Amino acid sequence: MRPFDTLTLMQFIWAFLAILGFSIRSNLKGIRILFTALSGGLCWAFYLIILYYSKSMLFSVFVAIILVCIYSEIVAPRLKTPVSVFVTCAIIPLVPGRGLFNSMQLYIAGDNLHASKAILQTLLIAGTISIAIAIVSSVTNLINKLMNRF
Amino acid sequence: MPKVSSQQVLELALEIGRIILQSGGTTNRVELMMKKVCNCFGYPETESYVTPTGIFISIKDEKGNIFTSIKRIENRRIDLGKITRISTMVNCMEVKALSEQELQEQLVNFNSELKKIDNENPWSPWIRDLCGGVTSGFFCLLFGGSWAEFAVAFLIGAVVTFGLKYLEKLAFNNFLLNAIAAALIVMLAKTLDIFIPYIRLDNIIIGGIMLLVPGLSITNAIRDTMSGDLVAGTARAVEALFITVGIVAGSASMLKIWSMWGF
Questions:
Q1: Nearest to B185 by CA among B111, B98, B93, B253
Q2: Which of A25, B7, B183, B234 is most buried, most CB within 10 Å of its CB?
Q3: Phi then psi for B254, rounded to 5 degrees?
Q4: ipTM of this predicted complex?
Q5: A141 in contact with B at a CB cutoff of 8 Å?
Q6: How far A100 CA sits from the closest chain B CA (Å)?
């Protein structure tokens, strides 16, 4: 799969529509559901593109979440929405539901070696997501404080 | 110079805090919003301490009397719309020098608006059920499902979203709620697998599980910890962990039961 072909575009659209459904399900309304959906779609698209170039899953999760959190910090105040609402919608595609399911299946099957490998992978992805959110939110706090001071 | 009684302001602030916290807002936001409301009604010296399961707030009037109130928060559920609307409402408030009557009018306005936000839903229930289906279906496609699998995942997502509403009314804890929902997803997928040929269950079940993953808890845990609320951050992280364990336990036991049955 090359980074900028129709398949990536299709994946972007699926992620967009999935997060659109998620934001309506959690009662958001108005023009902002398009932007939350866009954040989800962008998150997945960034992930795929960076995965192609870097060949490292954790690194691409990290960079994709950082980019999408910066997007949320920029867009959310302009739509009068709390930033955490945007971030919640944005990270959903990368939350490791698949890793969770795979490790659970291996665990039931009694394949302890592969199961522990999959669980470790799942935990690493969750940890990476947390670190990326933490970095962006603390840097934004710092920038806001500096902006208020001067 | 406060002209509204401290009791009324406390009630308003607690109500705002309760709605934001129950809909899944960060504790930092709750503290900020409550402080802002009290400030607008002429009580600038407000201290609050918020955890994910309770609100403590005390305000001080100009004579130095301190009034404190505690609110216990139960049955939390995701409702990003309410957080957004209340934040917009509170951010529109301004500190102004108003007469007593105007302040009273403003208080009544805020109370009625809060009641409106708390009770009405912007989307009708069946649209939200269908959107649960849309989410689950498109996640199934995203992870490499076919269109037949999309249809099955759509159906399962809609049924599970519909069922979750009634399960929430039974006031289970989070662990049991997610375990039952995950078991329901696996059971429906396995049942439909008998009747519909050529579908792979992995993608369908993952699509359904994506409805339950604790994305909000993870976000809140990190943002709370980063803003200095260590207690709230730890509590949310443990919540996320237990939701995950619940999902795994529910779906794993249901898968095991079906495999023992021989399908």
A1: B253
A2: A25
A3: -65, -40
A4: 0.91
A5: yes
A6: 7
